[in-house]
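Design job #97: recover the sequence.
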């Protein structure tokens, strides 16, 4: 396990290909897709279609508004309104008296594709980067998908939910801009959930995520570990940091 872990850390690269502001961790955060699935396509595996980002927003306007994310097409002379969109979201959504909002402008929104599913949650970052969380359709609705929109396409993290509402990542795949469908990776849900009551797999987790070292005394089981990492994602504005957490949990639950 130590050799595999060392090799995993050695191969880490930056997935975003752009500088991300306010990073709170060091070079190990810079990931490419060390846990990206390279397995051959499973015959008959369910597939999800994609849709241009601009059209997806139109279809999900009401749900997105409920998440305090607002957008508009830019109707400016010489600008294709389907290719450029402005987004704003509340800086402090927990403070009803603070209406301050951040503004982001996305380009190429008619050619950037996203998964054609209703939104569960959405985060917008600098440099035209976003994360959308989806729930897979019935009968696969025990699966959640964290889909990171980066310059080169989508990085999709497949998760299941525990009894506390935490998401547990179990697989990650990468899509190019030209890809039209996403193959749904099915989990062994019971195997994952059975591990929650086991003693926490601390050793690889704290090697991959060094900040964990200061909190190991508070973590006894894998359930504690999952809960701690899910709480850690709240308020994070660094996409590399979020994906490091995903990759750490994927590695821990695949041992």
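Job complete. Output follows.
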């Amino acid at each position: 396990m130590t050799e595999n872990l060392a090799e995993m850390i050695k191969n880490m690269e930056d997935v975003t290909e752009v500088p991300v502001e306010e990073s709170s961790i060091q070079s190990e955060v810079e990931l490419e897709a060390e846990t990206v699935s390279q397995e051959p396509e499973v015959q008959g595996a369910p597939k999800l279609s994609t849709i241009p980002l601009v059209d997806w927003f139109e279809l999900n306007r009401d749900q997105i508004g409920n998440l305090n994310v607002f957008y508009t097409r830019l109707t400016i002379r010489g600008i294709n309104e389907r290719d450029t969109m402005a987004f704003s979201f509340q800086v402090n959504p927990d403070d009803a008296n603070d209406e301050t909002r951040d503004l982001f402008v996305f380009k190429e929104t008619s050619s950037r594709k996203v998964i054609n599913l209703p939104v569960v949650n959405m985060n917008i970052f600098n440099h035209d980067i976003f994360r959308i969380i989806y729930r897979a359709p019935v009968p696969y609705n025990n699966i959640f998908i964290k889909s990171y929109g980066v310059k080169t396409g989508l990085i999709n993290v497949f998760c299941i939910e525990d009894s506390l509402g935490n998401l547990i990542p179990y697989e990650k795949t990468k899509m190019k801009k030209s890809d039209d469908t996403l193959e749904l990776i099915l989990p062994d849900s019971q195997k994952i959930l059975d591990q929650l009551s086991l003693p926490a797999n601390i050793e690889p987790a704290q090697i991959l995520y060094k900040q964990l070292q200061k909190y190991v005394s508070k973590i006894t089981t894998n359930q504690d570990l999952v809960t701690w990492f899910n709480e850690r994602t709240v308020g994070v504005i660094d996409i590399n940091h979020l994906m490091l957490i995903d990759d750490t949990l994927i590695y821990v639950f695949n041992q």
